[in-house]
Amino acid sequence: MFIRAYLRASAQDQDANRAEIALKAFAKEQGVRIAGWFCENESGTKLDRPELFRLIEESEHGDVLLVEQVDRLSRLGEADWGKLRGLLKSKGVRVVSIDLPTSCRALKVSADADNFTNRLLDAVNEMMLDMLAAVARKDLLDRKRRAAESVQRRNEADEGKAPEERGYRGRRVDTDMHARIVELKRLGMSYSKIESTLGVSRPTVARALKLAGMIGVGEAA
């Protein structure tokens, strides 16, 4: 049995490796070793994720896909989640998530455990995994709905007001700084180097490049 860890963050300015410490600590506590790490910055709402599918492709029957939380694996809609679950099942890959105790039991089942025990654990784990995947999807949709409602309320409150009387619209963009960030990126400088050179944060770098249509260009480390 090989254990492969999957790390995911939604945006380029987020650290997909953030969960690595937690996963290493979990593996040490369980007395197991992580054979490989697969990390990417992709939305959990997308089924097409290169590193996730590379992990699955390299896995064999009985191997484990380890994640910090189920929402790192999926915020997919029902149809896409069904496709991913079907692929994992056809490959015989077990999903183990730190936030799902029933899945963690899979690490403790020995190779000579009776078939009934294995089948029972698999059935319970599949049910709980489906439930948490559905919760992750609902949480995403709820946050999007609340954000949209907030914007609508703000717009309604500002209706008929002069621009200077309207509510807070966010911090004014430092156009000069954004121009410098874009120029350094065009010269091939990495995110980290731009941060240290200009004394700005990674979100600021990402925001400037996104506004310039350059997000994701070059390395993001």
TrEMBL record:
- Name the domain of life this protein comes from: Bacteria
* MF terms in GO: DNA binding; DNA strand exchange activity
Among the GO biological process terms of this entry, one is: DNA integration
Q: Which residues form the active site?
A: 10
Q: Where is the Resolvase/invertase-type recombinase catalytic domain?
A: 2-158
The record's listing under InterPro entries reads: Recombinase_CS, Resolv_N, Resolvase-like_N_sf, SSR_resolvase
- Which Pfam families does the entry link to? Resolvase (PF00239)
Region annotation Disordered: residue ranges?
148-169
Q: Which UniProt keywords apply?
A: DNA integration, DNA recombination, DNA-binding
Output this protein's name.
Answer: Resolvase domain-containing protein
Q: Which organism is it from?
A: Caballeronia terrestris
Traced from the root, the source organism's taxonomic lineage reads:
Bacteria, Pseudomonadati, Pseudomonadota, Betaproteobacteria, Burkholderiales
